[in-house]
Amino acid sequence: MGTAEAKTLPRSRSSDKSLPNGLLGMLIFILTEIMVFAALISAYLVARSSAEEWPPIDQPRLPVVATAFNTIILLSSGVFTYMANRAFFIPKQEAKACQLFLIAILLGSFFVLFQGYEWIGLIHYGLTMTSSPYGSFFYLIIGGHALHAIVAISIMVLAYRKMKQAVLTPSEFWTGQAFWYLVVGVWPILYYFVYLS
Fold this sequence. Notes:
Layout: H1 3-7, H2 21-50, H3 64-88, H4 94-124, H5 133-164, H6 170-196
């Protein structure tokens, strides 16, 4: 088999409608993670409803506007991931798929770095894990999301490298995308409950 043939992977265009094992496993994992975030939000709402004042008067307020901008960045990353997926399955569009996917990764990385920058400011102003239940819940929920984002971006970087080498399988691509869509999809819910309400 020649080098060109070895690097050309068949796209999944067959009549086989079965779900790849990797994607199925990721979807099951995503369902459990959705339940984890739902439990965290529920606990947060219970704590908030029983507090006399929320957030506590001595705690800094969250940067709602800056985080709204960052939310748009993350949602844009999800859109570019979707566009990369569409291009990936069109013959001779591999280079375009790589470009779109790289933009998605860069936007996602910006989101995480921007959140980290916000955290430095909040810690400076006294919002820590031990400053109040408000701080504890903030870092537990938003930090949990950040951890998911970092893992998902790492998976996407590995997928991007394989895409550049033309050895990325559709199953691997879908699996990584599914995890990123969890990160993107759950964030507006967290933003609403933690930052806005």
